[in-house]
Amino acid sequence: MERWDRTSQLLISAAIGVSRTIGGLPLEHPLDTIRTRWQANPTYSRNALEVVREIYRSKGILGFYSGAIPNTTRRAIKQTYRWPMMLFFPNSYRNHILPSRIQQRYPRLPKILTGLSIANFEILIINPLERVKVWLMTSPKRISLLEFFRQRVNTVDIVRELYRGTSAVVYRQNVSWVTFLYADELTKTKLREYKKTQDLNHLDLFLSGMIVAVVNTGAMMPFDYVKTQKQKFFQNNQSMFEIFRTTLKQDGLSRFYVGWKIYFVQYAIVAILTVNVLDKLEQKFKNSPVNKS
User: Fold this and answer.
1) Is the pTM above the cut of 0.85?
2) Is 220 within 8 Å of 172 (Cβ atoms)?
3) CB 67 within 8 A of CB 137
4) Residue 210: which pLDDT band, with cuts at 50, 70 and 90?
5) How distant is the alpha carbon of residue 275 from its chain centre?
6) Which ranges does the record mark as transmembrane (predicted)?
7) Which residue range is the domain that position 53 belongs to?
8) Which of 141, 158, 228, 276 is deepest in the core (most CB within 10 A)?
9) What is the pLDDT of residues 243-273, one digit of tens each?
10) What residues does 291 pair with on adjacent strands?
């Protein structure tokens, strides 16, 4: 049987994460741009096609790749660390932190704690890049990345603007990671119990990924909408809770889900690929003896 030392496992999972970013970006970034523009100005467009036309009129084909530089950087960085964390944090909580009686009572607690750990670790890293990405995506015309910094007169102003919308990002990341890892663990466990086998085929993992995408999309979109309102080019200066209250009062709950079909497709791609690869890596590393020397 193959022997895997811990460094090799970390490097392999990090490399897979980065390759996922590079491979998925050409398709996922335009979808992200369309969704973000629609969230930023939901009253201006009735459907995705109108958003597409508006982007093309104001920015041309390259407008669909506005914010590609900060987005690629953001995703490459977070994919590098999140895959090793997804693979090894649950076992760390099981083997070294949580008492066995707690694990018996709450078997999915290691996944929940892993989600919270990753979410709060990455907030400080990804929020500045997320802010610049949204700012560029929602600008009325094509604009240089450097323009963001030219418009800020001093370091304090730049830092404050880079971390605009952090409160919404905190909620979004925590909700996203916990629902993703919990739903991933639960659906695969139930499938294995139903099929009475530990080996899940590609169809099983596809169905699991779709379920995870539905849960993740439904839970996270309201917080993502508020984040976009806080970080867009013509930003909303209300507090996160004021935006929630005003939106619910004026437009109802459905406003938080504007562009949900695009969001679902985008997250279905991510979730399906992630669930499939994550399961294969978990099973491979779990079944392979680890050489710690």
Assistant:
1) no
2) yes
3) yes
4) confident
5) 13
6) 205-223, 258-278
7) 4-291
8) 228
9) 999 999 999 999 999 988 888 887 777 666 6
10) 5
